[in-house]
From TrEMBL, chain A:
Family as reported in the entry's similarity comment: Belongs to the 5'-nucleotidase family.
Domain 5'-Nucleotidase C-terminal, residue spans: 379-533
Protein name: Thiosulfohydrolase SoxB
Protein source organism: Sinisalibacter aestuarii
Domain Calcineurin-like phosphoesterase: from-to ranges: 50-305
Pfam families referenced in this protein's UniProt entry, alphabetically: 5_nucleotid_C, Metallophos
Lineage of the species this protein comes from: Bacteria, Pseudomonadati, Pseudomonadota, Alphaproteobacteria, Rhodobacterales
Keywords in alphabetical order: Hydrolase, Nucleotide-binding, Signal
Domain of life of the organism encoding this protein: Bacteria
Length: 563, 139
């Protein structure tokens, strides 16, 4: 089943960088030769502590295609800084040759062609192989899961995420933090958390009524003669970005002062190394690293960035490990007497055709999926267009969803939320039910049909734009812009809230959106309780089934300025 | 009878908006309230801290905490609310700390502002932007 294709050489980030003074060049081996598992896993074990980081797996047990973003704008102080570098600029920044496996794994350039050559990435059975290999070299390596694990697939929905819980438990993580987990509803979260053989950390999760800590903030580990503190930081804006009624008694927030207190507390308790396992999003972590002294490593998550080198903020290392099981980060550290003396890092790309699946995990995944095999694999249609989601303003998956919403719900305008999860599908592929769920599976899926005035639409779009483009990262929520079907607009990302959008236009008529006029708007994933309408996955399935073969036209309806 | 410029502004704005106060009127009411507290003295920075969420989870109950060691009186304003004055707390000589914590309703995104009158009669001021958002698209 697995063909050993001819690969170009690719050890993504064989970086050996010592000393906290800066990040060296990314070792680039240009020689053309076959890519092997040994090369992907090659690593000279270093120092006395090893961290393994996975994050934002979003329920993906099996290998997937995942196209990295073409548009990922940074505003304010982070404009043009990683991860806000894409495509050819990204390849240039990290010295990556176009067309190589690294280019395929880390950027969107030539994605469709390279995807056909290099195949899918990820798969928890391949991740298991990597984790076992690292543990063979460093038996007490810490495996840390940044969250968004119990969400995002057909089998997660059918099993209440037990599929992910069981598979992750086999990997034996040492701690995790969270975001979408809470959209299972607080009762199910509590049930799972009580069953976990490792701590579920969230220093910034509080009881909403009494403002008291609701979850364990950190865990101390003894590794390689060093005391390692791992502080968990859940997604700060859960009650705003996701339905608050699903976990009504919890409050989150960035809570920078709380993080500073926890760092002090673990330092006072003798921590030699302070690691933050974070679901803040990269820019929020970058600011927090600058604001809160004493953090050695932040394992970032939420914004789905994959960076081949750590980003240094002062003496703090920021690690970005991608999403959907596509990468595993390994970070070896030399920790002596409360000092981080050096590190060695590698972002390991999980090329599913190169890394051998772990037999035990593969068998477990197959058994988990077996009861749902027929439903998962049912072919609903075909796609002539590569379907992907990532990008600040639009992606073909959401264009498709908006087209389906407009037709199925007889709407003038469609809104699809700016989620960053959801794998890609290469042109010419069959679309299975599993593929549709991978792009839409969630616990508040109702596709509403509402009337909104042009003014209300503007307010919503301005609000979402400010969640993305507010120059202060602490006010950013880490999603992308809400995707719009049936309407075009112009946006200046440098303007303040209320002034970013202009030229809102109804595409069907070419007329300007009238603030006073009422439009029929269809959308999904409303955070309001009691939202009515068919589930988005059913709606999209019905639409694709009727179309047979789908294709999505290039989207030119959003004009961006100030990027 | 003569109007000050500020009173004229308030009246003018009041004539335009009968249900909600126009922004100019709210700003004026806020400035007046600050002036009334400080007696027109300029408020300095430092020595006062305000803690509030960057983005309100629920605009109806936003937790706000203000601390100003050595203060005799702390006032809190929500300048974007129809009635900006939130609370006025006096600390006696036996108070163990000069810190208040409450929950306030915010009509919209605004700079929640606190002032303290210190033991020496000086004033300090601090503000924090709290966003009130429609929410719903974090991913």
């Amino acid at each position: 089943m697995i063909s050993r294709r001819d690969f170009l050489q690719a050890t993504v980030a064989a970086s050996a960088i010592l000393g906290g003074s800066g990040v060296g060049a990314w070792a680039q081996i240009a020689a053309r030769q076959q890519l092997t598992q040994d090369q992907l896993l090659e690593f000279d074990t270093f120092g006395n502590v090893t961290l393994i980081h996975v994050t934002d797996i979003h329920g993906q047990l099996k290998p997937v295609w995942f196209r990295e973003p073409e548009v990922n704008i940074g505003v304010g102080e982070v404009r043009g800084l990683p991860p806000h570098v894409t495509g050819a600029d990204f390849l240039k920044l990290y010295n990556i040759e176009p067309g190589t496996p690294e280019a395929y794994a880390l950027s969107y350039e030539d994605f469709t062609a390279l995807a056909k050559g290099y195949g899918k990435m990820g798969g928890l059975d391949r991740v298991a192989t990597v984790v076992k290999s690292i543990r063979a070299a460093r038996p007490d390596a810490l495996l840390l899961d940044g969250g968004d694990t119990w969400h995002g697939s057909y089998t997660v929905m059918k099993t209440g995420a037990q599929d992910m819980v069981d598979a992750m438990n086999m990997l034996r993580p040492d701690a995790m933090t969270s975001h979408w987990e809470f959209t299972l509803g607080i009762d199910r979260v509590t049930e799972i958390v009580d069953s976990l053989p490792f701590p579920f950390l969230g220093a910034n999760i509080f009881d909403a009524e009494w403002d008291e800590p609701a979850y364990q903030p950190y865990e101390m580990f003894e590794r390689g003669g060093a005391k390692v503190a791992v502080i968990g930081q859940a997604f700060p804006y859960l009650p705003i970005a996701n339905p608050r009624w699903m976990f009504p008694d919890l409050s989150f927030g960035v809570r920078e002062e709380r993080m500073a207190e926890m760092v002090q507390e673990v330092r006072d308790a003798g921590a030699d190394l302070v690691v933050v396992l974070s679901h803040n999003g990269f820019d929020v972590d970058r600011k927090m690293a600058a604001q809160v002294p004493g953090i050695d490593v932040i394992l970032t998550g939420h914004t789905h960035d994959a960076l081949p080198e750590p980003v240094m903020v002062g003496q703090t290392l920021l690690i970005a490990s991608g999403s959907n099981g596509k990468f595993v980060s390994r970070l070896d550290l030399d920790v002596q007497n409360g000092q981080l003396l050096g590190f060695r890092h590698k972002l390991i790309p999980i090329f599913s055709d190169v890394i051998e699946p772990d037999g035990e995990m593969a068998a477990h995944i197959d058994a988990t999926r077996a009861p749902f095999k027929a439903e998962l694999e049912e072919v609903i249609g075909q796609t002539d267009t590569t379907l992907y989601r990532r990008g600040n303003f639009n992606g073909t998956w959401d264009d498709l969803i908006c087209n389906a919403l407009i037709e199925e719900r007889e709407a003038d305008i469609a809104l699809s939320p700016g989620f960053r999860w959801g794998p890609s599908l290469v042109e010419g592929s069959a679309i299975t039910r599993e593929d549709i769920y991978n792009a839409t599976a969630m616990s508040y899926p109702n596709a509403y049909r509402n009337e909104m005035t042009g003014e209300q639409l503007k307010v919503i779009l301005e609000d979402v734009a400010d969640n993305l483009f507010n120059p202060d990262p602490y006010y950013q929520q880490g999603g992308d812009m809400v995707r719009v079907g049936g309407m075009g607009y112009r946006i200046d990302v440098t303007k303040p809230q209320g002034e970013r959008l202009s030229d809102m236009t109804v595409l069907a008529t070419g007329e300007a959106v009238d603030p006073a006029k009422t439009y029929v708007v269809a959308g999904w994933a409303s955070v309001n309780e009691g939202t009515e309408g068919p589930a988005i996955f059913d709606l999209v399935e019905g639409w694709i089934r009727r179309k047979g073969t789908v294709s999505v036209d290039p989207n030119t309806s959003v004009q961006v300025e100030g990027a | 009878m003569t109007f000050t410029r500020r009173e004229a502004l308030v009246l003018g704005a009041g004539g335009l908006a009968t249900i909600t106060l126009a922004p100019a009127a709210m700003a004026a009411a806020f400035e007046d309230a600050i002036a009334a507290f400080t007696g027109g003295a300029a408020a300095g920075e430092g020595g006062i801290e305000i803690s509030a969420p960057e983005i309100a989870e629920n605009g109806n109950v936003v937790p706000v905490e203000v601390s100003a060691p050595g203060a005799e009186e702390i006032v809190v304003f929500a300048p974007g609310n129809p009635a900006p004055a939130v609370c006025n707390v006096k600390f006696g000589p036996l108070a163990g700390s000069q810190r208040l914590s409450t929950r306030i309703r915010l009509a919209k995104t605004q700079d929640v502002t606190a002032l303290a009158r210190m033991g020496d009669g000086s004033f300090v001021q601090v503000a924090r932007t709290v966003k009130v958002t429609v929410g719903g698209c974090g991913g």
